[in-house]
Amino acid sequence: MRSIGDVPLAEIIAPDEQAILRAAQTLAAGKLVAIPTETVYGLAADATNGDAVAGIFEAKGRPHFNPLICHVSDIAMAERYAVIDPLSRQLMDAFWPGPLTLVLPLRPGTHIHPLVAAGLDTVALRMPRGIAGKIIAALGHPLAAPSANTSGKISGTSAQAVADDLGEKIALILDAGPSEVGLESTILKVDDDAVLLLRPGGLAAEDIEALIGHSLQRMDQRAAIQAPGMMASHYAPSAGVRLNVHEVRDGEALLAFGPERAADAHKASARLNLSEAGNLREAATNLFDYMKRLDRLGGAVIAVEPIPFTGLGEAINDRLVRAAAPRVPPIEELEQIK
Ligand code: TXA
Ligand code: MG
User: Fold this and answer.
1) pLDDT digits (tens, 9 = 90+) for 270-304
2) pTM of the predicted model, to two decimals?
3) Which residue's alpha carbon is at the smallest distance from atom 1 of ligand 1?
4) Which atom of ligand 1 is closest in space to residue 199's alpha carbon?
5) Which of 94, 196, 253, 324 has the highest CB neighbour count under 10 A?
6) Cα 154 to averaged position of ligand 2 atoms, centre (Å)
């Protein structure tokens, strides 16, 4: 095994039949594997394993949780995880496998971990070309995989580029030569008859328009995910959110972290602990689920104990701050402010 000092470096292996099995086994064990796709190399984890998915954010050093694309081996696998409308199905039939991602409603009760979709009720699916599909089929689960690069650096399009950037943080890199497209996939979302272009990418808009017979509706990807309307329905809980809480108030639902409790924790109407041990990776895997569970109890306020800003803590705090942000009041209320 190659290493720098005590840190083992990822092994780079040729993409043969044995590599497919090794990659599937490594992924099944909850580890990260860099896999070639036709667009860019992906930093992959089993999408049903929250701890492994948290590992992606940790390895990339992402300061926030954005939803990840899930890679499937075929349309049948896509059907198991998402509800596919006829137009999306037509797009899959025409362009899969290939550099096209479709955002679809998550099928209720699927095992895709909530961290993959960052708590949204949709999931972005794509069927990549090449060896990735065989690895996914061997694993039997979809793979969450953003581009294999540290956050803020350019996407890895060769095994060596991935090794140089992330070699100390991942187990295995499959080398299938330089990526054919070199640009991330095009992301679409079908909204009734309109087809929204959420991210331009490796499949040209013109090719899509030729198939569907009308223009794509362009929209800013950030706006698509982060527009206040979407935030209110997807990210912000109905309850208010109070952060960095050292003292719990009567009736608040408590989102705890670590072994020590805030003062007056007994006043909480309910309590869930993101990680008793104070493990940020465990906290990340529980975050969206626990926020939703406390919110469903219907209390007025979710009180959140302090969470350190180190490692995944930065992304956890980013998401909590968004959830706590005061929302724009309804227009009727605004009119009463004179
Ligand atoms: O080419 C690619 O697509 C590469 C290779 C590795 O397959 N993957 C990739 O994945 O770029 P990722 O996870 O970095 O893409 C994330 C983007 C997010 O920034 C977001 O725009 C979009 O995918 N996305 C994911 N889930 C979404 C959702 N539920 N709704 C809207 N957009 C979503
Ligand atoms: Mg990227």
Assistant:
1) 999 999 999 998 998 888 889 889 998 988 999 99
2) 0.84
3) 184
4) 21
5) 253
6) 7
